[in-house]
Amino acid sequence: MYQKILDEAMAELKETEFKELFTKEQMKKKFATDCQLETDLELLIPEQYVATVQERLNLYKELDNVETEEALETFEKQLEDRFGPLPEETADLLQAIRLRWLGGILGLEKLTLKFGNMTGRFAAKNDSPYFQSEIFGKVLQFIQQHPKEVTMKERNDKLIIRFDNITTVRRGIGFLSGILNEN
Q1: So what's the architecture of 31-181 in CATH?
Q2: Any idea where the domains of the chain sit in the sequence?
Q3: In this predicted model, what pLDDT tens digit does every residue of 82-134 receive, in sequence order?
């Protein structure tokens, strides 16, 4: 938590006080340093797949430290080598990591995937340069192109995006990836 607060404070200083010192290339960063995921889906390593509690806890800790696609693929291959084919809940758990990463790239601080819908809360404050960024432009363009499936509104001074009929993590990834791939 301390590191997250420190990172946010540093990013804010780079955008305001020391703006002239940092070029756009130096400021290539996520607008949300971490995207939390809340869901009613089963995303876990089941007891039938990894029998001991301690081993499952170690795997969760290891997974928590994965930060790149390559590392996630390596983690997945190691699981399959040690324990066999991934159960659906575990495959979905790994996909949830990718969903969180996409959320962070899009500037979302929290994704909620419940009751067949997905909502995302933007991390940026109302006066943030995020709302003039290319990423936010892609979000707006995606909403305009998919008005029946995606809506946006403001709640408690935070911007919320809602995707309808999202019943799986993979479908959520498809929508967030679609935002980044739209021209």
Answers
A1: Alpha-Beta Complex (3.90)
A2: 1-30, 31-181
A3: 999 999 999 999 999 999 999 999 999 999 999 999 999 998 777 788 888 88
